[in-house]
Amino acid sequence: MQLFVNDLTVIDFSYCCAQRGIVGESWIVDVLLDGSLNEMSMVLDFAVVKKQIKAIIDDAVDHKLLLPMLDDAISVGKSTYRADHEFVDFSSKQGGYYLQSPQCAFAKIATKQIDIASVTAHLKTIILAQLPKNVQGLTLNLRAENIDGAYYHYTHGLKLHDGNCQRIAHGHRSKIHIYKNGQRSTALEDVWCLRWQDIYLASEADRIAQNELELSESAIANLTPDHQFFSYFAPQGRFDIAVPGQILDVVDCDSTVELLADFIARQLKQQSADDEFKVVAFEGVAKGAIAHA
Hints:
By secondary structure, the protein is of the alpha+beta class. It has a single domain, classed as 6-pyruvoyl tetrahydropterin synthase/QueD (Tetrahydropterin Synthase, Chain A). The protein has helices spanning about 45-60, 115-130, 185-195, 215-220, 255-270; strands at about 1-15, 20-35, 65-70, 75-80, 85-90, 95-100, 105-110, 135-145, 150-155, 170-180, 185, 200-205, 225-235, 235-245, 250, 275-280, 290. The strands form three sheets. Strands 9, 10, 11, 12, 15, 16 and 17 form a seven-stranded mixed β-sheet that branches. The protein has a five-stranded mixed β-sheet with strand order 7-3-1-2-8. Strands 4-5-6-14-13 form a five-stranded antiparallel β-sheet. β5 (about 85-90) and β6 (about 95-100) form a beta hairpin. The termini are far apart.
């Protein structure tokens, strides 16, 4: 007997890619269970699937930075500054990324590269270990949203968030709709999606000086004049990141989707004061904010 739940959840995360750097991503998750019927004549109660399996997935990878631990470009070590924090040093074609975060902000996956196959295998092992014995098989379908038009991948962190959005290197794959004087402008959408392609979005308020950084000795030794530095305290702990300037956009606000929509609208208005703009900014799949200028 099989039981399925489509669109069980969406995982929003970032991952380390040798070519692209740190990349924000959003994947929809479908679940198919194989098993015998239990005492309630069910493979598994839908409520359990929707709550327990979603919680397992969220705890394993959602709002985390996924690390391909078999990639020699990744180095992970215990923080020498704070308990239960870790350093991550990552070298890519976009430059070096260096982080300190609480351990819960990272997902370590035994693979050379992060992709749907490696994340699926990682999640299946974790989920099957926590399911009842009558469930013998599990199929996960991880998929990107089908977007007809432009989109961008961004990574960020929200220091004021009580939940997992506070993690300094999680991200999203997001579309955007921009309207100029009531008419949708795919040209403007293309401009912003090119600007924020595989971007790290930082808040100016979180900028710090190099001598305030808490990073590994190796990271400090490998910083370049192109790196910029950001740090904040949040409920889960302290977060530090050094980011290459060419994949960075520093905004004059926090990077909530509401303020990002407003930031884009204000930028458009500054460029064309006589026109009216509406920005529909998405944060991952099927959620977002609308701003007018």
